[in-house]
Each structure stands twice: as C-alpha cells, then as structure tokens.
Amino acid sequence: MERLTEFEVKFSGLKEGIHRFEFSVTDKFFEELEYKEFNSVQATVVLDLHKKATLMEAHYSMQGTVNLHCDLTNEPFDLEVSHDFDLVIKFGPDFSDDHEDLMVLPHGAHSFDASQHIYELLVLSIPQKRVHPGVEDGTLDSDILHRLEELRPSEDKTSQSGTDPRWDALKKLKE
User: Fold this and answer.
1) pLDDT digit string (tens) for 88-116?
2) What's the sign of the alpha-carbon dihedral 110, 115, 116, 122?
3) Cβ–Cβ < 8 Å for 46, 20
4) Alpha carbon of 76 to those of 71, 118, 142, 145, 147: distances in Å?
5) Residue 103 carries which DSSP code?
6) What predicted TM-score, i.e. pTM, was given to this entire model?
7) CA 38/CA 54 separation, integer angstroms
8) d(CA 59, CA 49)
C-alpha cells in the first residue's frame, strides 16, 4: 500500500493525554490506492489518540456517504456509513501489525501511517450485499426490476403434485 503523507500521525512532540486528529476521505484517497469499487466517497474519520508513557490507544470513528451500485439493479445510490475501531499501539524492536487490534512500532518511531486503518475502516463498513433502498421499500422504478419480475417463476407452472413437469419428464428417463 502506498504511503499517503496527509494520513501520517506525528506523535513524538505530543504530551501525554488525548489528542484529536481529523481526516477527510474523498475519491482521491481511493484513486491513489487504486480501489475502484465506489463511485464516490465523502467521509470524515476522527482519530482520538490517547498517548500514555509506554503505549498509545487509538480510537477511530468514521461517518460519511459512499456512492456505489446496487447488486440487483446496478443503479447508483448513496449509502450512509459509520463505523468505530479501537487500536492499541505499543513499542518494540520491529514494526508489526499482525494482530487486527494491536500495532507494534519500532523504538524511536515518531509517527505512524493511519491510511491502512482508515481504508479498512471504510471498506469493511460496506455490507456484502449492496441493495438500493428503493428496492427494499418498493419505490424504485427500474427496467431491470420489471424484467426480473417477468422472469420470476410462477406457481401455475408446477403440477398438482408440487413438482415441475419438466422434472417429471426427466424422472421417466431414470426408469
């Protein structure tokens, strides 16, 4: 992943206590990372960094809007997203981010890159199945929805026994 300098958090000159960093995430962020799943993004990420003597605790909170395509109709729509994430930052001999909620920075480090955590925070807040709100409440008028309704199997095609007559013909081949 490419290092984005505007998402670098410099903590070396900060006193112990809670410090707030605010990041604006737009289309440019995902263009630089070559991630093309979203049409547009407008989100704000707030990082509350609690600096202590031997470690730091980071609390990320994100809110915004992502424009993407519906999986059923391919119609674009805006999805409201919000998500929180907590991270513990310790110091050790080498950099490590093997654990999802723990990051180890090398001794003497004075900053860390928050772009990977922001990326994961936003991407993982999107549901696997993206359905336009108009599909769920029935207000979306789309040609694709009309076509899907026409192609829906009807109950009158099944025989009285509850099976499809095409399968009955295939069952005769077994005998």
Assistant:
1) 999 998 988 888 889 999 988 898 989 88
2) positive
3) yes
4) 10, 23, 12, 14, 18
5) E
6) 0.74
7) 39
8) 7
Measured between alpha carbons, how far is 24 from 126 in angstroms, rounded to an integer? 18
Instruction: List the beta bridge partners of residue 111.
Output: 10
Question: Tokens standing for 1?
Answer: 């992943």
Q: Residue 44, Cβ neighbours under 10 Å: how many?
A: 12
The encoded tokens of residue 53 equal 């003597």
**Residue listed under structure tokens 């290092």:** 3
Q: What's the farthest any 2 CA atoms get from each other in the chain?
A: 83
Report the amino acid identity of residue 150. Answer: E
Residue 85 has pLDDT above 60, yes or no: yes
Q: How far apart are the C-alpha atoms of 59 and 13, rounded to whole Å?
A: 19
Helices assigned H by DSSP within the chain? 27-32, 115-123, 133-137, 143-151, 165-174
Cβ(84)–Cβ(60) below 8 Å = yes
Report the alpha-carbon angle 33-35-39, nearest 5: 125
Q: Which amino acid is present at 174?
A: K
